């Protein structure tokens, strides 16, 4: 696949993600015309770029979907739940076609057929369907009644412009590019296009409509060129006794921001330019950012347009009132022209503000593999820098030490900056769950809404990628087992609709992700009885509440009475736990019967470099993740004697079980008289790991272990030390499990 | 489309059940004129509105102005007429304030007067 096709696919996936979010929002606010436009534009851009890069099947399929969406956009069809369902289905199908190029076309035809049936259903015509979502609220307008007085939104020469809700359509550049004309795709220009803003005054000939040209279509064509603000001037419409109904009395002021040339605008009017009055003026260019978002005053615009003379403006200004108000009252110009000038002022200010933002937040798209390579290289550099520092300090050469210190500082800055490039906001993952919640709750006949908080919290790209599956499983469980059906909720005094909340917060070098539901909660007694039934625990085992909840993570455990497609096969939560632990994270459950459950994931910010604790056993070095370490204590022969052969240490009158790593790794060299116990917290419990010596903190660049070591699950990777030797990184969770298994076997024997 | 006087005899209603496009606007104008002559208060009720074009919107504007100037009332019930506001917005008619031809703030295209409630 060539580079262009690859970038097409990346863009298409992004558009599909945006499309999904827009459709879900549209389902909640079906009247939102901006959302309808967003949905249409996303589909239209996918169609255009698919055709451009040779993905003809996708282009053809999208074209059909777009046709139906166009009916919605033009108000001929309402936004209904059924339509959103089908649009989401079509979106999924496009994604499927992107994933699997030679996909079977039967499903395409099915979806198109369903969409076509929906669009041709007379019951769903917007004019006849009173109960459509978009028109559900009844519009009774008494236009001749007096309405409350509102602020006279007219600008003075010194005041800021008031809010005007003109018809401004924002089209992303990608859309403009592929939106040139139906089925007419231009080669994408690699060079950056600059936008300019034109003022178009279009005064059609009164008989234009009789000659068969519809000005409305011309306006739509102009809209296709970019961002527009359109103001129709109605002052020439005569009263009922004089009006010729088939004549056109309206003229338009259109402000257009586009990357197209003035010729492209003229082309639209090419067939009517002799019979109509068309003025096109350039009023703003991309290079004008030095002006910030400020733009001409109202009076300047009106004079420029020749709507008033400068003399009259001066005279009027002397009256020191709101200019627009004075001009209208003095019959210098009419309200329509003032509105139009204010609209122009607002349009340009918005364009300039946006341009300013774009300039300051410019970004480039970089291949993720290149980023991975960069991180690897920085990792190597950190290792080399450590070697350099060690050599420099041992040489006692002050000049060399100075250079080494400088390199150390620069390397630290480079490392932090490189790591920050890979950080992504968690909202990228959160937004995908909205669809999951919607579809699952529909499937199970439950009413569930989802809220998110802390979406801007950043995590390493790799952590986010690997977090998706475990989170999907947890959310599925929340909906399937946690949230009750609407009737049950109502009976227990809750609202019919349940809530799942996703919250992300920083906590030191970690991020906490809390997934909560306001469902039935988890009954510890029920867990215990199931664990007993399945032989996971024995009757004499006394467990704390946390330990009881942790039984949910035992392989084969399931509290669901029936196995559903959603969850309840008992193969999920143990996989979730191991996935989180593979990310060097932890998982915790808190629950209250009748109130709900919260599952907290604690995850490291990054997987590439960690703060580690370097330890020594025999002649080997090992690293423990510093974030898990609670404290270190000495272990003497006297301590061993006190515990009478059992692997336990007494720390401030508290018993801490420990794992003698020397025994586990079968290291034969003589034991030192005083050993060290590194105490770490695992699943809320403290456990010690006995080592010979503690060397100290170590910036650990994680290297993946080769294929030969794939079976050694107790090591999560390796790192290279300053002297070039290798230290293995310990997976404390797995090591504790291994120690427990070995201990059990020992007792059994 | 047709005009009927209400039983009270104080007002009348124009019922619209066909598209208000260039083909029908002349007939619509006559209905408006008929209503104007017969009463001071006209209600417009859309049984359905499949489409409205520039001419239709223009005619409504004209009728509304004519009624207002003569201190007559023209009330529009926009139920079943979602396309009316959509087209008016698309064409650039919706605004904050009406034109100077109207003395009060009851312009047909004022945002407040066409907004869904």
Describe the protein's architecture and organization.
- The complex is a heterodimer of chains A (749) and B (117).
- With 749 residues, chain A is of the alpha+beta class.
- Chain A has 5 domains: 3-135, HPT domain (Four Helix Bundle (Hemerythrin (Met), subunit A), Up-down Bundle), CATH 1.20.120; 173-360, no CATH class; 368-420; 424-604, Heat Shock Protein 90 (2-Layer Sandwich); 609-748, Roll (SH3 type barrels).
- Chain A has 23 helices and 22 strands.
- In chain A, the strands form 5 sheets. Chain A has a 5-stranded mixed β-sheet. In chain A, strands 20-13-14-22-21 form a 5-stranded mixed β-sheet. In chain A, strands 15-18-19-17-16 form a 5-stranded mixed β-sheet.
- In chain A, strand 13 and strand 14 (620-625) form a beta hairpin.
- The longest helix of chain A has 28 residues, at 368-395.
- The radius of gyration of chain A is 34 Å and the shape is elongated.
- Mean pLDDT of chain A is 79; it is low at 122-192, 287-293 and 560-571.
- Chain B has 117 residues and is α/β, with parallel strands linked by helices.
- Chain B has one domain: Transcription Regulator spoIIAA.
- Chain B is 37% helix and 17% strand.
- Chain B has 4 helices and 4 strands, in the order E-E-H-E-H-E-H-H.
- Chain B has helices at residues 25-38, 54-69, 82-90, 111-114, and strands at 2-5, 12-16, 41-46, 73-77.
- Chain B has a 4-stranded mixed β-sheet, with helices on one face.
- In chain B, helix 1 links the parallel strand 2 (12-16) and strand 3 (41-46).
- In chain B, helix 1 packs parallel to helix 2 (54-69).
- Chain B is globular.
- The chains are: A alpha+beta (749), B alpha/beta (117).
- Chains A and B meet through strand 1, helix 7, strand 3 and helix 12 of A and helix 1, helix 2, strand 4, helix 3 and helix 4 of B.
- Strand 1 of chain A pairs antiparallel with strand 4 (73-77) of chain B, so a sheet runs across the interface.
């Amino acid at each position: 696949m060539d580079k262009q096709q690859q970038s097409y696919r990346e863009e298409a996936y992004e558009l599909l993600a945006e499309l999904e979010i827009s459709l879900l929002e549209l389902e909640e606010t079906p009247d939102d015309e901006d959302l309808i436009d967003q949905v249409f534009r996303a589909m239209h851009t996918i169609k255009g770029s698919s055709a451009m890069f040779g993905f003809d099947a996708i282009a053809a399929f999208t074209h059909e979907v777009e046709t139906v969406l166009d009916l919605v956009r033009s108000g001929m069809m309402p936004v209904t739940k059924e339509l959103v369902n089908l649009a989401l289905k079509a979106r999924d199908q496009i994604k499927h076609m992107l994933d699997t190029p030679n996909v079977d076309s039967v499903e395409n035809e099915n979806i198109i057929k369903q969409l076509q049936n929906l669009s041709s259903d007379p019951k769903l015509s917007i004019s006849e369907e009173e109960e459509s979502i978009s028109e559900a609220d009844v519009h009774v307008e008494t236009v001749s009644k007096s309405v409350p007085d509102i602020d006279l939104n007219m600008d003075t020469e010194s005041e800021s412009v008031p809010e005007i809700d003109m018809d401004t359509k924002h089209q992303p550049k990608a859309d403009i590019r592929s939106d040139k004309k139906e089925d007419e795709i231009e080669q994408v220009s690699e060079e950056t296009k600059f936008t300019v803003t034109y003022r178009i005054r279009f005064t059609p000939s009164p008989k234009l409509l009789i000659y068969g040209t519809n000005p409305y279509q011309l306006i739509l064509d102009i809209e296709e060129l970019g961002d527009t603000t359109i103001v129709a001037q109605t002052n020439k419409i005569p009263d009922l006794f004089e009006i010729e109904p088939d004549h056109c009395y309206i003229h338009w002021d259109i402000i257009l921001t586009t990357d197209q040339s003035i010729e492209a605008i003229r082309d639209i009017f090419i067939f009517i330019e002799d019979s109509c009055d068309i003025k096109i003026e350039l009023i703003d260019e991309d290079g004008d950012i030095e002006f910030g978002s400020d733009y001409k005053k109202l009076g300047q615009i009106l004079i420029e347009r020749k709507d008033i003379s400068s003399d009259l403006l001066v005279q009027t200004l002397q009256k020191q009132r709101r200019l627009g108000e004075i001009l209208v009252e003095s019959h210098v110009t009419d309200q329509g022209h003032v509105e139009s000038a204010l609209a122009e002022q607002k349009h340009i200010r918005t364009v300039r503000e946006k341009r300013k933002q774009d300039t300051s937040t410019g970004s480039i798209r970089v291949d993720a593999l290149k980023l991975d390579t960069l991180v690897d290289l920085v990792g190597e550099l950190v290792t080399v820098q450590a070697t350099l520092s060690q050599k420099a300090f041992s040489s006692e050469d002050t000049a060399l030490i100075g250079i080494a210190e400088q390199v150390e500082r620069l390397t630290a800055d480079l490392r932090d900056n490189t790591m920050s490039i890979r950080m992504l906001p968690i909202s990228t993952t959160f937004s995908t769950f909205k669809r999951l919640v919607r579809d699952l709750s529909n499937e199970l006949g439950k009413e569930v809404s989802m809220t998110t908080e802390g979406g801007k919290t950043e995590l390493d790209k790799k952590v986010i990628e690997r977090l998706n599956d475990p989170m999907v499983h947890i959310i599925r469980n929340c909906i399937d087992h946690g949230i009750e059906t609407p009737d049950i909720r109502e009976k227990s005094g809750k609202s019919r609709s349940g809530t799942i909340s996703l919250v992300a917060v920083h906590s030191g070098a970690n991020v906490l992700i809390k997934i909560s539901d306001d469902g039935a909660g988890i009954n510890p007694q029920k867990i215990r009885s199931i664990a007993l039934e399945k032989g996971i625990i024995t009757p004499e085992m006394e467990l704390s509440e946390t330990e009881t909840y942790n039984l949910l993570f035992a392989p084969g455990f399931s509290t669901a009475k029936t196995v559903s497609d959603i969850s309840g096969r008992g193969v999920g939560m143990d996989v979730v736990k191991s996935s989180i632990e593979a990310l060097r994270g932890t998982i915790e459950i808190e629950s209250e019967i009748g109130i709900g459950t919260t599952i907290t994931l604690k995850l490291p910010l990054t997987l590439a470099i960690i703060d580690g604790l370097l330890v020594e056993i025999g002649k080997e070095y090992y690293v423990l993740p510093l974030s898990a370490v609670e404290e270190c204590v000495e272990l003497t022969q006297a301590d061993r004697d006190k515990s009478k052969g059992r692997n336990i240490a007494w720390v401030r009158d508290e018993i801490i079980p420990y794992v003698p790593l020397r025994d586990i790794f079968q290291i034969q060299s003589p034991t030192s008289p005083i050993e060290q116990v590194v105490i770490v917290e695992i699943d809320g419990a403290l456990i010690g790991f006995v080592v010979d010596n503690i060397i100290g903190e170590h910036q650990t660049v994680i290297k993946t272990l080769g294929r030969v070591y794939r079976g050694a699950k107790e090591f999560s990777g390796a790192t290279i030390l300053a002297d070039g030797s290798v230290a293995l990184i310990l997976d404390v969770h797995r090591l504790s499990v291994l120690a427990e298994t070995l201990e059990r076997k020992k007792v059994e024997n | 489309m047709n005009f009927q006087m209400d039983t009270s005899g104080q007002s009348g209603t124009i019922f619209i059940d066909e598209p208000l496009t260039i083909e029908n606007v002349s007939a619509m104008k006559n209905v408006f004129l008929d209503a104007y002559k017969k009463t001071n208060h006209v209600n417009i009720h859309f049984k359905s509105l499949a489409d409205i074009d520039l001419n239709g919107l223009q005619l409504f504007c004209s009728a509304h102005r004519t009624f207002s100037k003569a201190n007559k009332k023209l009330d529009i019930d926009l139920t079943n007429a979602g396309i009316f506001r959509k087209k008016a917005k698309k064409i650039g008619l919706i605004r904050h304030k009406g034109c100077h031809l109207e003395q009060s703030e009851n312009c047909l295209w004022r945002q407040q007067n066409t907004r869904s409630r």
